[in-house]
Design a protein that fits this description.
The protein has 12 helices and 13 strands. Strands 7-8-9-6-10-11 form a 6-stranded mixed β-sheet. A 3-stranded parallel β-sheet has the order 3-4-5, sandwiched between helices. A two-stranded parallel sheet has the order 1-2. The protein is globular, with a radius of gyration of 19 Å. It folds into 2 domains: 105 residues, Rossmann fold, CATH 3.40.50; 170 residues, Dihydrodipicolinate Reductase, domain 2 (2-Layer Sandwich). Helix 4 packs parallel to helix 5 and helix 6 runs parallel beside helix 9. By secondary structure, it is α/β, with parallel strands linked by helices.
């Protein structure tokens, strides 16, 4: 995610980058690729920066985030906010007390199809929502030292991946009343993961969320929402795209301006909130509520029982 974010920051003339990576060979390549200044520690990044973007493994979010907030730095925290609700709540409380912006990296809100779908549903374009279905995933990610496959560090597919859909559904349909989930990772605690989660919302709508790290055919996202007045649907494999085929693989590209990239949109939104003194587009509380749904899904998958997401923090 550091590379993903750096690619967008490089499009912004008002941004200069410094960074820390404990692996010297990776640091050298990152510095050259993004014209970024390497420094010797997380503390030096914080000292030399106006804002801090945390792209570490999930179990390391809390420590880095708290150090940055204690230094008075606004923080963009890649999702999820933290590995558990206790530390996530402490991050949000610390940011509120220090009066600094804390933004959760729920980037799916910025993808044009998902943003349009949200607008259609919330504006009544399909009447009263009754049922929704999402699907997200592809092959298993790895990361440094294979950290994604250690569910104690990543939370598995329900925390690292499904949280995108949980956040979008909550943003679009409202609060979750209760849920039921089953997953491969609930029994293994490590390795590739797959999960199915059924959520019932306070408004009576039901959603089915499929999340997978076990699809070798490539990454794919889909959603549909059915209501009393119609249905909307999206499938990333059916969306028009420009495909470039080269020796090292096939890349799908959508002809668009730099600022149309969803990652650009969320990071620019964060920086503008800091500069203008306005709330983050995706607040710390938004991040907390998405995290609560993911953790409830993990609890349900582990216990085999219906679970209720935490609502009080």
């Amino acid at each position: 995610m550091g590379n993903v974010h750096a690619r967008q920051y490089r499009k912004m003339p008002d941004v200069e980058l410094c960074f820390f990576d404990r692996r010297p060979e990776r640091a050298s390549a990152f510095a050259e690729r993004w014209s970024a200044k390497p420094v010797a520690s997380v503390e030096e990044v914080i000292a030399q920066s106006d804002v801090v973007d945390v792209c570490l493994p999930t179990d390391m979010h809390y420590e880095a985030g708290m150090k940055a907030i204690a230094a008075g730095r606004p923080v963009f925290m890649e999702k999820p906010l933290a590995i558990d609700l206790k530390t996530a709540c402490e991050l949000v409380e610390a940011a509120d007390k220090a009066n600094v912006v804390l933004m959760a990296g729920q980037v799916v809100r910025y993808f044009p199809e998902f943003a349009a779908g949200h607008q259609v549903v919330t504006s009544g374009g399909i009447g009263t929502p009754a049922a929704a279905r999402t699907r997200r995933g592809g092959p298993a990610p790895t990361g440094a030292s294979d950290w994604f496959m250690d569910h104690r560090r990543s939370g598995g597919v329900l925390l690292d991946l499904a949280i995108h859909d949980f956040d979008w559904l909550r943003w679009t349909l409202g609060e979750v009343k209760h849920l039921y989930s089953r997953s491969v990772g609930a029994s293994t605690g490590s390795g590739p993961d797959y999960a199915l989660t059924t959520l019932t919302f306070e408004n009576g709508c039901v959603a089915h969320v499929e999340s997978t790290w076990m699809d070798p055919s490539g990454f794919r996202t889909t959603f549909e929402v059915a209501g009393s007045g119609g249905l909307i649907e999206f499938d990333s494999r059916s969306a028009p795209a420009l495909r470039t085929n080269v020796a090292d693989g096939t890349k799908a590209e959508t002809p668009s301006a730099a600022e149309d990239d969803p990652y650009y949109g969320e990071l620019r939104g964060f920086l503008d909130a800091v500069v203008n003194g306005t709330p983050a587009p995706v607040t710390g509380e938004d991040g907390l509520r998405a995290l609560a749904i993911s953790l409830a899904a993990i609890e349900s998958a582990q216990t085999g029982r219906v679970s209720v997401p935490a609502r009080q923090f």
